[in-house]
Amino acid sequence: MITIIGVNEISILLQEELKGSFILGPYKEKVNEKHINEGINPLSIISNTKNSTTIIDTTFNTITSLIINDIALKYNKSLISTVIINQSLLVKNVSKGSCVRCEVENNIITSNFIVVTNLIKDKKLLVEAIIESLNTRKSFLIEGEKKESIPIKTQGCGSCLNQEYRFLEGDYGEMINENCGNKSAGVFPIDDREIDLNYISKNLKLQNITIIEENENYISFLAEDKKFFLFKNGRLMISEIETKEETEYFYRKYIGN
């Protein structure tokens, strides 16, 4: 069984091509609404992929994708991930022969990657690349209307050693849906604006906010019957990870101290 994580035009096109596959996320009628990754969290991913042999990640959300990779590694799932250049953790300039997998931690990423350089006009090209990766285990780089198979190395990567990559710098990047993921471990630009109740209400588009705790590092609050931790450097991890300790664990692992 194949589980597709994320609800957007890409995942819906994939499901039409991959008969019997399952989409994890809100109903497809919401595809044009904001926050369409809401409800995708570690617990729901583990629960809904128990019977899956393959996971296809179409969330286009860096932190969510890293968590999905961790789960796939732990539960021995085959994984294909779609990633977008300049999205927080990923590469700035991918050239022929450069390494993608070791961009994160050594061998932590178990997936085949579909890398796109920008919002692509032909979404069917991305779907085509995902299906080809599913059948051949190849990874692809998509630039405009061009699709190219790229090699994946896991050790001794000359590109990384030569610092051709850059790591977390707060670059928001471009996504298939620019609002996708804002409620699901979303990654926001780092800037000098004060993060307060007005910021939360305006930027996260949440109502009925109640502050639980606030210190120099984060704000903990309730909104729409969910518990949130908003870190003051502008990065959000949400609810279903119930405790501050668990939240901080994910934060340290995927973002840093």
End-to-end separation in angstroms reads: 37 Å
Strand content: 15-25%
Largest sheet composition:
7 strands, mixed
How many strand units?
11
CATH class of the largest domain, anyone?
Alpha Beta
Uncertain regions: pLDDT < 50 for 5+ in a row? 85-110, 158-192, 234-240
Reading side by side through the largest sheet, how are the strands ordered? 2-1-3-4-5-6-7
Name the average pLDDT: 62
Quick one: overall form? elongated
Order of helices and strands: EHEHEHEEHEEHHEEEEH
Q: Helical percent range?
A: 25-40%
User: Total number of helical segments?
Assistant: 7
- The structural class is alpha/beta
Describe what you observe in this structure.
With 257 residues, this protein is an alpha/beta fold. It has two domains: 2-161, 3-Layer(aba) Sandwich (Rossmann fold), CATH 3.40.50; 197-254, no CATH class. It is 26% helix and 21% strand. It is built from seven helices and eleven strands. The protein has helices spanning 9-17, 42-48, 62-74, 123-136, 158-161, 197-204, 244-254, and strands at residues 2-5, 22-24, 54-57, 78-84, 112-116, 139-143, 146-150, 210-214, 218-223, 226-231, 235-238. The strands form two sheets. Strands 2-1-3-4-5-6-7 form a seven-stranded mixed sheet, with helices on both faces. Strands 8-9-10-11 form a four-stranded antiparallel sheet, covered by helices on one side. A hairpin with a 2-residue loop joins strand 9 and strand 10 (226-231). Helix 1 (9-17) packs across helix 4. The longest helix is centred in the middle third of the chain and has 14 residues, at 123-136. It is elongated. 39% of the residues are buried.
